[in-house]
Amino acid sequence: xxxxxxxxxxxxxxxVEEAGALVRVRWDGEASGAVTALLENAAGQLRxxxxxxxxxxxLPMEVRGSEALRKVCAAMSAIPFGYTRTYGEIAAETGLxxxxxxxxxxxxxxxxxxxxxRVMGAKGLTGYSGKxxxxxxxxLLRHEGAAGLLI
Length: 151
Hints:
By secondary structure, the protein is α+β, with helices and mostly antiparallel strands. It is about 35% helix and about 15% strand. It has helices spanning about 35-50, 65-75, 85-95, 100-105, 135-145; strands spanning about 1-10, 10-20, 20-25, 85, 120. Strand 1 (about 1-10) and strand 2 form a beta hairpin. The radius of gyration is 15 Å and the shape is globular.
């Protein structure tokens, strides 16, 4: 396992690779192991996202966990830049309860790359598992021009 740290407006973010795929995003900002071509590419894409010139990541990612987590991560990955969906909408798509979707969003191993920040409650803004909590979620949504959808 190797990790590279990228400094962004959202904090220092560690991208973790294992066996040729990104497997985790950590908010602790700790690098480890040898920097690979994949990590360099991922760091460049994250910097481009932070700079506002990239709207979709094109990286090999592996979601490790239950089938339900993989379904929810796939649904979140399909949310376009600048848009949001609700837990209920993802629940209807995946056959899970909205509460289960919320819990699975909170355990997303690849936040930002798999945009759990684009998922809202039925009545608007909800928590965020990343460093800084809901403030970071708001910052990510504003960065994407989705701030008007927060109301």
